[in-house]
Amino acid sequence: MMTTQNTQPTNLPPLNGPASEPPFLSLHTTVVLLAALVIGIVIGTLTALTDVPVAAAVIAGLTATGASIPVLRSLIR
Fold it and tell me: Residue 52 and residue 34: Cα distance in Å, rounded?
C-alpha cells in the first residue's frame, strides 16, 4: 500500500508580501547606467566607423559613457 505525502515546503515567504531585501540598484541608477551604456556604445561604434584603431574607438566609448553619467544623473529625476 502506497501513501501520498504532501511535499510542499511550508516555510516560504508569501509571494505578494514585502521584499525582505532592498533591490540591488534603484530604478534611477539603473536607468542612468543603461542610458550611459547606450551612449557609449553609439559613440564607440561611430568612432570605429571612421577608420581609427579599435582601441581608440573603445576609449572613446568608455569616455563617453563615463562623461554622460553625471549629466544623466542630473537630468533624469
Answer: 26
What pLDDT, on a 0 to 100 scale, did the predictor assign at position 73?
95
For residue 70, give the amino acid letter. P
pLDDT along the chain (77 residues), means of 10: 63 63 91 97 97 96 97 93
- Predicted local confidence at residue 75, as pLDDT: 95
CA 52 to chain centre: 29
* Residue 54: DSSP 8-state: H
Q: Round to whole Å and give the CA distance between 42 and 56.
A: 14
CA distance 15 to 9: 14
Q: How far apart are CA 48 and CA 64, in angstroms?
A: 14
Shortest CA distance to 39 belongs to which of 70, 74, 67, 77? 67
